[in-house]
Write a structure and sequence with these properties.
The structure is a single chain. The protein is of the alpha/beta class and 339 residues long. The chain folds into two domains: 3-105, CBS-domain, CATH 3.10.580; 111-337, Spore Coat Polysaccharide Biosynthesis Protein SpsA, Chain A, CATH 3.90.550. Helices cover 23% and strands 29% of the residues. The chain contains nine helices and 19 strands. The protein has helices spanning 16-25, 45-53, 62-65, 78-85, 149-159, 173-181, 230-240, 303-311, 331-337; strands spanning 9-11, 31-35, 38-43, 73-74, 90-94, 100-105, 119-122, 143-144, 147-148, 164-169, 189-194, 217-221, 224-226, 244-254, 258-263, 266-272, 275-287, 316-320, 325-327. It has a seven-stranded mixed beta sheet, with helices on both faces. It has a three-stranded mixed beta sheet with strand order 1-2-3. Strands 4-5-6 form a three-stranded mixed beta sheet. The two termini are 35 Å apart.
């Protein structure tokens, strides 16, 4: 086995959280599930998201989450390897005893290829929960590890070839515009959507109606940091045939007491300080451009309004995040972002 894939390996008895950690740390985004050193399955990013949507949690065992019939090839069988790589990004390579040897890949650094999808960063809020920090500085320009928050968001978008960026501004708008004017990045195509009054988390989208947009639009709250893979989000949305896809993060709440479970009015169990897990709105969305026509001009509209309307028509999908995600809405989370 090559040392380069050791971080991709988990045991069938490991929890899903171990597979997620492997995906986050490894350059090759495929987890190999072994039992007695034999390959018995694989776990991809998509397998994790499907498991979360189906109610599985981070303690679910890998052998429950995995694809138990992965497409693999014998090491040295160049014909089979090349054939599989036309359909699969990664192909596990095994020996005749099913011992894992390596992973073949057709990944050609596609992150660098530019994507046509426009991105809207909602950055017009006053950041009242971060006062007094936002008294003289708009929240998008607050430093996170020596760089303004919005600059970090833009950098992460650029990693995935998302360069067509609009920033919605209202509070201290000129300061945000002046900051980006001083930067010189030929790959970046940043424009501003200037609100005359606060328009909520979706109202400014009406300003895009005359931009002739034909590709799905990514909308991000301007106080969200994440390591998510935007290409996977776009692919997921396109394949879902939904009008809106909402990104959902995992949020844990620990009850500080032992909880009592009853069955037929009798005590059946006491669980000490259980942790409840919920999927929450992560403040990242992708919408079809046709929805722009549903937004009235210069009117306060929140993204939740748009979502609720389309839920009734079964036109909203969910993209669960397992990657790092942080909403910088208060002082505690702002301090966490500095770590």
């Amino acid at each position: 086995m090559k040392n380069t894939i050791k971080s991709n390996i988990v045991s069938h008895s490991d929890e899903m959280s171990v597979a997620i950690e492997s995906l986050q740390k490894s350059l090759i985004k495929l987890v190999l599930v072994l039992d007695n050193q034999k390959l018995i399955g694989t776990i991809s990013d998509g397998d994790i998201r499907r498991a979360l949507l189906n109610g599985k949690n981070l303690q679910t065992k890998c052998n429950i989450v995995m694809n138990n019939d992965p497409q693999c090839a014998l090491v040295g069988d160049i014909g089979t390897i090349n054939k599989l790589l036309t359909s699969y990004r990664f192909v596990p390579l095994i020996d005749k005893h099913k011992n894992i040897v390596d992973i073949a890949t057709n990944d050609n650094n596609t992150k660098k290829n530019s994507l046509p999808n426009p991105v809207i960063i909602m950055a017009g809020g006053q950041g009242k929960r971060l006062l007094p920090l936002t008294l003289n500085t708009p929240k998008p320009l607050l430093p996170v590890n020596q760089k303004p928050l919005i600059h970090e968001i833009v950098n992460r978008l650029h990693l995935y070839g998302l360069n067509k960026i609009y920033i919605s501004i209202f509070y201290k708008a000129e300061m945000v515009k002046d900051y980006f004017k001083k930067l010189s990045n030929p790959d970046s195509n940043i424009k501003f959507l200037e609100e005359e009054k606060p328009l909520g988390t979706a109202g400014c989208l009406y300003l895009l109606k005359d931009k002739n947009i034909v590709d799905p639009i990514i909308v991000i709250n301007g106080d969200v940091l994440t390591d998510m893979n935007y290409r996977q989000l776009i692919d997921y949305h396109n394949q879902s045939n939904k009008l809106i896809t909402v990104c959902a993060a995992i949020y844990d709440i620990q009850i500080p007491f032992g909880t009592i479970e009853l069955e037929d009015n009798k005590l059946s169990n006491i669980i000490e300080k259980p942790i409840k897990k919920y999927l929450i709105n992560a403040g990242i969305y992708i919408i079809n451009p046709g929805l722009l026509n549903e937004i009235k001009d210069n009117t306060l509209v929140n993204m939740t309004d748009l979502i609720e309307k389309n839920i009734k028509e079964n036109s909203v999908g969910i993209f669960p995040l397992h990657e790092q995600w942080l909403d910088i809405g208060n002082h505690k989370d702002y301090e966490k972002a500095q770590e």
